[in-house]
Design a protein that fits this description.
41% of the residues lie in helices and 19% in strands. The chain is α/β, with parallel strands linked by helices. Helix 7 packs across helix 13, helix 10 crosses helix 12 and helix 12 packs antiparallel against helix 13. The longest helix has 21 residues.
Length: 370
């Protein structure tokens, strides 16, 4: 299974702000929907300064890609679950009278033989028009969303987005950008990974890759392995094997000034477990830095708990217990490959990127500090 790569594409975000206190003018609202291999998520937001207020949101595990590895097609049951979730999204959009929106689908729909028929079914039954985006745009959305978390001391940056059906990695060299301009330079990648000449300092994308293995697809690859620990080890090894064509993997990197930012449900779940949260709190997780020892300790805990224990753990739960181990295997492989003992946790991603892209295109955002 060879990783896909390309030249680039874009959008652009920062941290989600607090919910808007008053009923907003529908004319000011924007929506972003991200239909992935495992989850369906949507945000409705109103521009606020250089950021936005969240007005309404939706998130549900629909497992659209269930069985896709085996059959190459989206199953009837997974499509039915997804359409049901999308009906709720449509109702929220209608209730809030949203007219500006972008609704995207990612890896599962890119790979499924019957994706086009499914997109037509969604439009017929919900009125929503889904757009299947390519890996390069998915990678850019992840990068730009993480820009506010970049340290002023960072010179080499790796952004990792662990999805349900694929994992995007983007390596950037920002050493030539003045320290105070680095987050803003990364934001400007919404114009593409190889933008035209600009008077502003530019972040250089050294290489990027989209590995067709995410938490759902990697789990399905090794579903026949019964032993929990053996399956975890095989998944971690297999993911690392798929990184061999990624340029920065081949060469030894300097440890000083290196930062990894991870964005995904896996990363935020591991962070919540590390903090011992009884109830998930985004304000405590987003921007947290974890050492590789702390991450290893959480992963060892997951292995000790086993499937039944993970299912009962409130920070993991029934839906995520199987996926958390494939995600942890990816995370462990990444920390094994690159010269850092820290990971920055990002609770943000494609939805934020989609919102910022729309708002930026309409010129409704202020060019203020993060």
């Amino acid at each position: 299974m060879a990783p896909k790569r390309s030249d680039g594409a874009g959008a652009y975000p920062k941290a989600v702000e607090t919910p808007a206190p008053d009923k907003p003018d529908p004319a000011t609202l924007y929506a972003a929907l991200d239909l992935g291999t495992n989850s369906c998520r949507m945000l409705i937001a109103q521009p606020k300064g250089s950021g936005f207020h969240v007005v309404d949101s939706f998130s549900k595990s629909v497992q659209l890609g269930s069985g896709l590895e085996r059959t190459g097609r989206l199953s009837r049951s997974s499509m039915a679950r997804t359409v049901q979730a999308l009906r709720i999204c449509q109702q929220k959009l209608k209730r809030n009278k949203v007219s500006r929106m972008r609704l995207i689908a990612t890896a599962a729909c890119r790979r499924a033989d019957n994706a086009h028929a499914f997109i037509q079914q969604v439009q017929r039954e919900t009125g929503l028009r889904l757009e299947i985006i390519q890996p390069e745009e998915e990678a850019r959305l992840a990068v730009v969303s993480c820009a506010p978390l970049v340290s002023i001391h960072t010179e080499q940056l790796l952004v990792v987005d662990i999805g349900g059906g694929s994992t995007e990695l983007v390596w950037m060299d920002i050493s030539s950008v003045p320290k105070r301009d680095r987050p803003r330079a990364i934001m400007r990648l919404h114009a593409g990974f190889n933008p035209a000449k600009s008077p502003f300092p530019a972040a250089k994308v050294v290489d990027w890759i989209s590995v067709p293995l995410g938490v759902a697809t990697l789990r399905d690859q090794f579903a026949d392995v019964q032993d929990d620990s053996a399956r975890f080890a095989l998944m971690s090894w297999f993911f690392e094997e798929n990184l061999t064509e990624f340029a920065p993997y081949k060469d030894e990197q300097v440890r000083k000034g290196f930062q990894i930012i991870g964005t995904s449900g896996t990363v935020t779940t591991v962070a919540a477990s590390h903090l011992g949260l009884k109830r998930y709190d985004r304000t405590k997780v987003d921007g947290l830095r974890m050492t590789s020892d702390q991450i290893d300790k959480v992963i060892r805990l997951y292995l000790t708990l086993g499937p039944k224990g993970r299912r009962r753990d409130p920070r993991i739960g029934e839906d995520r217990q199987a996926l958390i181990m494939s995600g942890s295997a990816i995370l462990q492989a990444l920390l094994r490959c690159w010269p850092t003992d820290q990971l920055s946790v990002a609770d943000r991603g494609l939805r934020e990127g989609l919102l910022y892209a729309q708002m930026s295109a309409d010129g409704v955002l202020e060019d203020g500090p993060f």
